[in-house]
Amino acid sequence: MLKLRDIMTPEVLTLSPNTSLRDAVELFAKHHVSGAPVVDGGKVVGVLSASDLLTFEASNPGVPTERDEVEWVDLNEEPPSTDDTAPEDEPAGAFFTDMWDDAGADVSERMSSLAGPEWDTLAEHDVEEIMTRKLLALSPDEPAERAANLMNEAGVHRVFITDKGRIVGVVSAMDIAQAVSNGQFHTRTYVFNRDRDFRST
User: Fold this and answer.
1) How confident is the model at residue 11 (pLDDT cuts 50, 70, 90)?
2) Could you give the CA distance from residue 103 to residue 117 in angstroms, rounded to a whole number?
3) Stated pTM of the model
4) What is the pLDDT of the chain when averaged over all its residues?
5) Which domains does the chain have, with CATH numbers?
6) Secondary structure letter of residue 5 according to DSSP
7) Which candidate, 175, 178, 169, 173, places its Cα nearest to that of 37?
8) Do residues 37 and 47 touch, judged by C-beta distance below 8 A?
9) Which carries the bigger pLDDT value, residue 71 or residue 120?
10) Average pLDDT for 90-117
11) Dihedral over alpha carbons 114, 117, 122, 125 (to 10 degrees)
12) How far out from the chain centre does Cα 137 lie?
């Protein structure tokens, strides 16, 4: 019987509840993972997945939140002289100075700190705000088939392997697929004949 310890990945990336979402995204990209358990003081308190991050980002309106409708200009018309430009026909640059009042900072301040939280919403929110607080975990000696069934039922892509409350590995849907591809899930059926001999099929 194939056990989880046989196919698990022992090196598990963990996050702190206070890790910024920006740092979490960078760690996921660096380690080529799509989820990680969240550990606080040695205790697992949740899990953050790429799905959590996508859901958060999709619900974020971004900055700025308001823009005027686009006004189309007929390029065949002669542009007005600069002397008689009406105040309401100010150049498009006025957008940056007058139309972003809802963004919370003046233009010069925004231009000098493009990497600030105002422009990077992920940097101003922490993992604990969006993490899933329910962690699916199994023992290393559980059959791999149980992890596959659990992932299928819960609609998740990984199960963490714990031993005495400590994370010792992770099994992903890719690990299960690779084990199937390698024939590790093959089970033998033994058939007995009248002479009490048996053969495997």
Assistant:
1) confident
2) 11
3) 0.60
4) 77
5) 4-61+123-200 (3.10.580.10), 82-118 (no CATH)
6) H
7) 169
8) yes
9) 120
10) 52
11) 170
12) 19
Q: What is the pLDDT of residue 130?
A: 93
Q: Which of 24, 37, 27, 34 is nearest to 175 (CA)?
A: 34
DSSP 51: H
Please tell me the distance from the alpha carbon of residue 35 to that of residue 24, in angstroms, as a whole number: 9
Strands (E), the chain: 35-40, 43-49, 137-138, 158-163, 166-172, 190-192, 198-200
CB contact at 8 A, 123 and 134? no
Q: Are 113 and 122 in contact (CB under 8 A)?
A: no
Q: Which two tokens stand for residue 197?
A: 């001999």
- Measured in residues, the chain has a length of 201
Count of CB atoms situated within 10 Å of the CB of 138: 19
Give the DSSP per-residue string, 125-155: SBHHHH-BS---EE-TTSBHHHHHHHHHHHT
pLDDT at 68 > cutoff 60? no
Report the distance separating Cα 188 and Cα 191, nearest Å.
10
